[in-house]
C-alpha cells in the first residue's frame, strides 16, 4: 500500500472530524449525524469535494452553512482545496439521521 492511499484515508478521517464540529444552528446535532453529508471525495491531489444537502431548500443557512463547511475543510493543513456541492436529490428526510441524532432530539 502506497503512502498516498494511506494519506487519503487518514485525510478522510480528518475531514469527517472537522465536519462533525459543524452544527445546523436550529438543531443541536452536527451536520454529519443529521445526515446532511451525502459523500466526501478526496483525490490524489488532496482536493476535496463534499456532496451535501440541507434540511430544506429554504433553510435559513443555505448560504452560510456550505461556506462554513468549505472554509473549515480548507483549514485542514493537508487539504489543497475544497468544494461543497449542494444537492436536493435525494431530498433530506429524518430517516437520514443517525441513531445518535434521533436520540439527541428525543425521537427514539
Automatic annotation (TrEMBL):
Pfam families in the record: FeS_assembly_P
Residue intervals of the MIP18 family-like domain: 13-86
Protein name from the UniProt record: FeS assembly SUF system protein
Amino acid at each position: 500500500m502506497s503512502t498516498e492511499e494511506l494519506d487519503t484515508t487518514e485525510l478522510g478521517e480528518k475531514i469527517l472530524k472537522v465536519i462533525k464540529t459543524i452544527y445546523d444552528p436550529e438543531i443541536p446535532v452536527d451536520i454529519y449525524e443529521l445526515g446532511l453529508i451525502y459523500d466526501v471525495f478526496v483525490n490524489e491531489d488532496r482536493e476535496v469535494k463534499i456532496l451535501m444537502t440541507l434540511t430544506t431548500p429554504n433553510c435559513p443557512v443555505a448560504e452560510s452553512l456550505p461556506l462554513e463547511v468549505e472554509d473549515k475543510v480548507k483549514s485542514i493543513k493537508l487539504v489543497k482545496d475544497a468544494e461543497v456541492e449542494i444537492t436536493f436529490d435525494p431530498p433530506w428526510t429524518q430517516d437520514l439521521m443517525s441513531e445518535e441524532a434521533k436520540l439527541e432530539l428525543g425521537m427514539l
